[in-house]
Amino acid sequence: MPALAIAGALRAEGARVVFAGGERAEAQLVPAAGYELEPLRVEGISRSNPIKAARAVVRAAGAVGAARRVLARHGADAVLGGGGYVAGPVGLAALTRGIPVVLTEADSHLGLTNRLLAPRARRVCLAFPIPGRAGPRYLVTGRPVPPTIEDRAGARASFGIPPGATCVLIFGGSLGARSINLAAVEAFADAPYHVLHVPGTRDFPDLRAPGGHYHLREYVQPFGCALAAADLAVARAGGSVFELAQYGLPAVLVPYPHASADHQTANARWMADAGAATVLRDGALTPERLRREVDALLEDDERRRRIAEAAAALARPDAARDIADELLAQAGVSSARSRTSDSASVL
């Protein structure tokens, strides 16, 4: 999703954008957004299975050659790496062809691919300030987000939520967050407010709405509609914290405890330290505790207002355009914000 936001900013500048990806969410989302997707056969490196790890390394090596051919076929002027395992072979292929590489990091630490590519990248755009990652190579831009949806009334109507009702949004990513999903249905079964629950594709078939006030949706696209409709959110603490900030949405964050380098805890702490969210440990999550945390916020209008203002202060709504400008600059093309120029081809 951050890459699609950047692609939109690039397309607005007249650049031609092509994606390279695997068989995960990008296989549906990229073509649906109107971009060409070049598939590459790669997989993540297993940290627990040596055989799978070796297979991943072999596939990555083979993907470098395939990526070189993709870059040549499209005449790429620059490459943007999103930090996933597909970005490794594509970034390496770009470097071997002398094509500028710009990296983005959505978490509060550099992932493996970005750590390997960063020394030779032209720029590394960070969502969060990261200790030890400073100097001209690193630029804190925030995490790219889609454009803000301003039509709150229309968003609410699309879910069947009355204009004056209070709405709590619950979500945990495209696959979902099992502990949150299970706790939420029980916690808010008799809630006196509306609940918009987006559990993700994995858990959705097993969940049942406990009443007419409870709106279950497997997936919402664009997700900004759900954010615009809500008064408060319960969520994990991945890159979506920037979307919560974008909408000034008070939140109860439940960091996923097994995220790499525990980055979700760091993300949640960043929000909480700024007064922009409250944090509930996954290990302490129960239906009763979740209901208490949410009700405490809903019953204190002044506290909720302060949290909303603090969240909005962390927002970086221009992140996608800032990263697009960096990429175009490295390709030798100026953006329209500085002057009119020739177009570029970006992968």
What layout of secondary structure does this protein have?
Layout: H1 2-12, E1 16-21, H2 26-32, E2 36-39, H3 50-74, E3 79-81, H4 87-96, E4 101-105, H5 112-117, E5 123-126, E6 138-140, H6 152-159, E7 167-171, H7 178-187, E8 194-198, E9 214-216, H8 224-229, E10 232-235, H9 241-246, E11 251-253, H10 263-273, E12 278-279, H11 287-298, H12 301-313, H13 319-330, E13 345-346
Parallel strand pairs: 1-2, 1-13, 3-4, 4-5, 5-6, 7-8, 7-10, 8-9, 10-11, 11-12
Structure description:
The two termini are 15 Å apart. This protein is globular. With 347 residues, it is of the alpha/beta class. A six-stranded parallel sheet has the order 9-8-7-10-11-12, with helices on both faces. A four-stranded parallel sheet has the order 3-4-5-6, sandwiched between helices. The protein is built from 13 helices and 13 strands. The longest helix is centred in the N-terminal third of the chain and has 25 residues, at 50-74. Helix 3 (50-74) crosses helix 4 (87-96) and helix 7 (178-187) packs across helix 11 (287-298).
Number of helices: 13
By helix and strand content, what is the structural category?
A: alpha/beta
Percentage of residues in helical conformation: 25-40%
Poorly predicted tracts of residues: none
Oligomer: single chain
Q: Quick one: overall form?
A: globular
Describe the biggest sheet?
Answer: 6 strands, parallel
Task: State the separation between the terminal residues, measured CA to CA.
Answer: 15 Å
